[in-house]
């Protein structure tokens, strides 16, 4: 747009002096035009309660126009609260109406705040008590919700909406408490079971490496991708034998197996005889028959591989001084004599010794 002519500039200046056409209102300390002074005088003479009431009605109308105007409704109510309102009933209504809009928009904390402010000015409004209870319910504050319901039912004992909300909140509260008790019971049982395993391992001189025991945050001890280790836990049977979950790694094929229940007195040969018959789908070269495999475990400190005799038992391997149990999940690596290239490039250099 080009520069205005002197005549147009004068016309624009006159328009800006008129309240109806102003782009922005004067700031404190600015010189007011005669028209603005007249408007300010009119506002000063108007009862703040009347001004707030007018804005409240504008807010109500904006709310009735639907969700797209609810932000405007909140702004009208907020502007109304900016006046020094002395009418407590009016103040309670403005807060109550703004609380309703906040509740509809999911602004639960703000809705509850406005309900409290409304009830400070009109404490027996069942409608506002219900809104406060509803906000508490949606916030998961079920005890507070029930307290509001009790307050509302004292005023209207037969209010069905509040009665239903009270029952719902009570049920949710009981579910929460029951959940906490069940969680504590499970935690106690797990702690007791873990202590039994720890004691049994101490008696067998098996070294458990618990979380945080000598391992860094970037510990690369083997984990099972995609599965929770909590699904794999050792337990002690009635004969005081430990049954272990055991992680089996086949590094040549980047695949894994889990033996969920390996009796500590069972031999490696017995277990792998079952696991490798029939041959796994990934054994495309047919190199992993029972008489072709070699079993190792890795010492994480030295990165050395230690071989395990197929005819030895699980407990025999786990009692060896170089064997550590991470995450209560014993781990072994399986390779094959027949995979010559892989053996020469990736395995042989790490073998520490055959016996220990």
Automatic annotation (TrEMBL):
Instruction: Give the highest taxon in the source lineage.
Output: Eukaryota
Q: Does the keyword Repeat apply?
A: yes
Where in this chain does the record put each Cns1/TTC4 wheel domain? 237-343
Cellular component GO terms, alphabetical = cytosol; nucleus
Residue span of region Disordered:
178-197
Sorted UniProt keywords = Repeat, TPR repeat
Q: Which GO terms describe its molecular function?
A: Hsp70 protein binding; Hsp90 protein binding
Q: In its keyword annotation, does this UniProt entry include Ubl conjugation? A: no
GO annotation (BP), single: protein folding
Q: Which PANTHER family match?
A: TETRATRICOPEPTIDE REPEAT PROTEIN 4
The entry's protein name is Cns1/TTC4 wheel domain-containing protein
């Amino acid at each position: 747009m080009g520069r205005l002519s002197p005549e147009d500039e004068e016309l624009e200046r006159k328009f800006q002096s008129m309240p109806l056409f102003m782009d922005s209102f004067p700031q404190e300390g600015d010189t007011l035009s005669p028209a603005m002074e007249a408007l300010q005088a009119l506002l000063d003479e108007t009862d703040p309660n009347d001004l707030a009431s007018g804005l409240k009605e504008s807010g109500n109308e904006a709310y009735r126009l639907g969700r797209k105007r609810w932000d405007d409704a909140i702004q009208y109510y907020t502007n109304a609260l900016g006046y020094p309102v002395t009418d407590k009933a009016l103040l309670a209504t403005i807060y109550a109406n703004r609380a309703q809009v906040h509740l509809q928009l999911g602004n639960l904390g703000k809705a509850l705040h406005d309900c409290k402010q409304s009830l400070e000015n009109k404490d027996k409004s069942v409608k506002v008590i219900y809104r406060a209870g509803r906000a508490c319910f949606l916030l998961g504050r079920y005890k507070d919700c029930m307290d509001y319901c009790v307050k509302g039912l004292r005023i209207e004992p037969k209010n069905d909406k509040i009665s239903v909300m009270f029952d719902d909140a009570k049920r949710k509260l009981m579910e929460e408490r029951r959940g906490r008790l069940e969680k504590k019971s499970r935690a106690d049982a797990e702690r007791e079971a873990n202590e039994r395993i720890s004691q049994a391992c101490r008696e067998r001189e098996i070294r458990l490496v618990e979380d945080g025991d000598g391992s860094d945050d970037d510990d690369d001890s083997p984990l099972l991708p995609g599965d929770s280790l909590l699904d794999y836990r050792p337990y002690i049977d009635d004969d005081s034998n430990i049954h272990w979950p055991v992680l089996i790694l086949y590094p040549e094929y980047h695949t894994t197996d889990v033996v969920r229940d390996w009796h500590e007195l069972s031999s490696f040969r017995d277990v792998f005889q079952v696991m490798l018959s029939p041959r796994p789908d990934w054994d495309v070269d047919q190199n992993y028959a029972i008489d072709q495999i070699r079993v190792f475990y890795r010492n994480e400190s030295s990165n050395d591989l230690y071989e395990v005799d197929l005819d030895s038992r699980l407990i025999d391997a786990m009692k060896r001084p170089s064997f550590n149990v991470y995450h209560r999940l014993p781990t072994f690596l399986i390779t094959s004599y027949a995979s010559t290239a892989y053996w020469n490039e990736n395995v042989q250099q790490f073998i520490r010794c055959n016996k220990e």
